[in-house]
Amino acid sequence: MEPGPDFTEYDTRLGAYAVVVRDDRVLLALWNEPDEPRWTLPGGGVERDETPEEGVVREVREESGYDVELGRLLGVDTVLIAPERRFAGNGGRWQKNVRVVYEAVVVGGELTAEVAGTTDEARWIPRGDVPDLVRESIVAKFVG
Fold first, then answer.
1. How confident is the model at residue 8 (pLDDT cuts 50, 70, 90)?
2. Structural domains for the chain
3. Do residues 31 and 114 touch, judged by C-beta distance below 8 A?
4. Which of 3, 62, 71, 141 could make a disulfide contact with 103, Cβ separation 3.0–4.6 Å?
5. pTM for this structure?
6. Cα–Cα distance between 98 and 44 in angstroms, integer?
7. What's the number of CA atoms in the CB half-sphere (13 Å) around residue 53?
């Protein structure tokens, strides 16, 4: 089917993320791509051959070393990205991020840092400390 006259070329990135809480601490990952690194939820881009659920489980393992079991869907967050805010690392092509967020619990693995990825470390942060962090909007929306 040909796009209609209202069609606009754009590239949308589908991501999936997890809110993992244990003992009133939340698992966050330090995202290293922005000029100033920011804390974010563990997760990331969903590959073409996987579901959002498969993608978030894979991404949490890559970024934190933990195996997780997903709980309920917490919500979907959509971010429109102005041209001047797009990252050179992705060729500046993403105009929209659609981020699916799940509740999750750790079922295995051990805390480790991602090697040569987009995050430098994963850390358990006391929930009360989260609002004082330099953090992504997804953290503020789903954790505080």
1. low
2. 14-142 (3.90.79.10)
3. no
4. 71
5. 0.85
6. 11
7. 5
